[in-house]
Specification:
With 220 residues, this protein is mostly beta strands. The chain has one domain: Umud Fragment, subunit A (Ribbon), CATH 2.10.109. Helices cover 6% and strands 39% of the residues. The longest helix is centred in the first third of the chain and has 13 residues. The mean pLDDT is 92.
Length: 220
């Protein structure tokens, strides 16, 4: 416990911190995760970054998929980078209770209607980028963002997508239409490196709300 408290105090002093408000980065990050962010203004594909929205000026967290000069497209729910399909291997479903989560008290989206408190399922796969970075993504159901035009990332920008593919507003949507668009590298605040701790309740300190297994958890 002493080591844990020391890390928390050190992260507050040296690293930036961010409280995850919603579920666009499930399964990697959950609503109510309190994360440590290593300040940085550069990122490589696979990095989970906190950045300032180009229009709204608010903090967002997503995964970098591509950098300047890369071409990105979604085809039938499959991610393509530079005309090559990103390898995706199905794994066990991601299952969570259909109940309010995190600071906003939002209920998760499921692949079928369920009753309150019942298991909420989403298909899950492990993706592997060309540079070897691995992470899991979720697929709830077919949607318009599963098929896109080809995006060519401008130099000095990155293309970001949420791991919860069907519940994320990201670079697939233009920034002047409520999306994120291409993110300037200077808008990047840092890379998410650790989940310091996690609470499923409306407050980080809500009694009984801390999630087991999410203390000092490395983010990949």
């Amino acid at each position: 416990m002493l080591h844990y408290l020391t890390f928390v105090l050190w992260s507050l002093a040296v690293w930036d911190t961010y409280w995850i408000p919603a579920g666009s980065m499930k399964p990697t990050l959950l609503p109510g995760d309190y994360v440590a962010v290593l300040p940085a203004t550069r990122a490589t594909p696979g990095d989970v970054v906190v950045f300032t929205h180009p229009v709204q000026g608010t903090a967002y967290v997503k995964r970098v998929i591509a950098v300047g000069g890369d071409r990105v497209q979604m085809r039938g729910g499959t991610l393509f980078v530079n005309e090559v399909a990103v390898a995706a291997t199905p794994v066990a479903d991601f299952v969570e209770p259909y109940a309010p989560q995190g600071p906003a008290g939002l209920r998760p989206r499921c692949d079928a209607p369920v009753a309150a408190g019942a298991p909420c399922h989403k298909r899950q796969a492990e993706e592997v980028l060309a540079n070897g970075r691995r992470y899991n993504v979720l697929d709830i159901r077919d949607g318009p963002a599963d098929d896109t035009a080809v995006f060519t990332v401008p130099e000095g920008h990155v293309f970001v997508i949420g791991d919860n593919r069907d519940n994320s507003v990201d670079s697939r949507f233009a920034s002047d239409r409520g999306g994120v668009g291409f993110v300037p590298v200077e808008a990047i605040r840092g890379r998410v490196r650790w989940v310091v701790f996690s609470s499923s309740g409306a407050s980080l300190l809500a009694p009984g709300s801390w999630r087991d297994g999410r203390f000092l958890r490395a983010v990949r």
